[in-house]
Amino acid sequence: MNLNKAVFFIMLGAALWGTIGWFVKNLYTYGFTPMEVVTLRAASTALLLMIYLVFKSPKTLYLQSLKDLKYFIGTGIFSIIFFNYCMFTAIELSTIPVATALLYTGPAFVTIFSYFLFKESFTKQKLIALMGTLLGTCLVVGLLPLNLISVPMASILFGIGSGVGYALYSIFSKYALKKYSSLSITTFTFIIASVTLIPFFPFQEKIQLLIEPEVLFYVFGLGLFPTAIAYIVYTYGLNKTEASKASILTTIEPVVATLIGIFIFQEAFTFVQMIGMSLIIGAVIFMQTKQKKDFQGKSKVII
User: Fold this and answer.
1) Could you tell me the pTM of the whole model?
2) Which of 59, 97, 129, 230 is deepest in the core (most CB within 10 A)?
3) Rg for the chain (alpha carbons), in Å?
């Protein structure tokens, strides 16, 4: 596969990630709560990935040791469940563009966590990127200039929480990558997440909804397009290019999400907020330009 094709697959995967808000917003119209949508996404993704791997690579589904479950409890519960719940709640309380911008504070949290956990160097480049992320976040949520807009505090907290959860996936995955492929990690992550959440899903109340064709389309569409397919094509492209370059290409994701929020759901997003999002995306790109061995690219979060 040549480089142009690899770039195409990476950007396709990132663009598919950007469509998640469309599926989530449509499921909300049927009365599902953010946690119920997290459950539906985890369960449908786990099922689809297991079916895919049974035919493509059955060995990928083998757990090498029960002790390794601790990695996937970290990625499945402390990252995927937590960050999806925070992100979906932020979408419900504010808008897709605002929630997506706050989610992209994740790489900044990875940098901070890695400094304390892995003793990674804290360079001037990283400091500039963190400052850019902070300034961009202030512009997106309306703290600058002079509270020009008003984003609910709860939405801000959930949005930043999604960024923290996003970061934790990379942190836990760094340990798991020593023994497992990124596709195995993602599959086990969603299996653990779904097993944890399904017992609490109100099937008696929602069973009638779950048999409606449109609801099933949104449920499995959520698990298929912005999750399973997005991850598979991203990983396929990643194998043929540098992780740092792939991380930069994935910044198409918030652009797609923002366009969906503005043009499909007619959500407000001011020029000042766009500048803020540009600063956050720019910080992500700047942080990656010289980090050829950054582990984030190898353990991209499925959002």
Assistant:
1) 0.91
2) 97
3) 18
